[in-house]
Amino acid sequence: MKIPKQEYTPEFRGLAVNRVKSGQSISAVAKDLGLVEQTLRNWVKAADAGKLNKPGGKVVTPEQMELSRLRSEVIRLKRENEILKKATAYFARETL
C-alpha cells in the first residue's frame, strides 16, 4: 500500500515555519504538529527563498488536509496490524 501524499494549507505551513523561526527546534515543532522533520526543513528552506506559498498553487482546505492525514494514518495502522498478526502467528507456532 502506498501512503497518500499529505497536503497542508498555506496557513499551516506558515505557522510551522514561524514557530521554527521564533526559536523552537525543528524536531520539537515537527513532533508537536505531527510532521516529518525533513518536510518542515524543506518548508523553512522554501520560506527563506520566498517560495513557501506559491501564487496560483493548489488551495487545500482544512477538511482535505484532515482527510489526507486520516488516510495515511489508516494505512499505517493496517501495516501495524499485519505485523502484529504475523508476530502472533509466529509465536503461536513456537509454543506448540
Automatic annotation (TrEMBL):
Pfam families: HTH_Tnp_1
One function term, GO molecular function aspect: DNA binding
GO biological process, one term: DNA transposition
Gene3D superfamilies attached to this UniProt entry: Homeodomain-like
SUPFAM superfamilies (alphabetical): Homeodomain-like (SSF46689)
InterPro entries linked: Homeodomain-like_sf, RD_transcriptional_regulator, Transposase_8
PANTHER family assigned: PROTEIN DISTAL ANTENNA
Protein's recorded name: Transposase
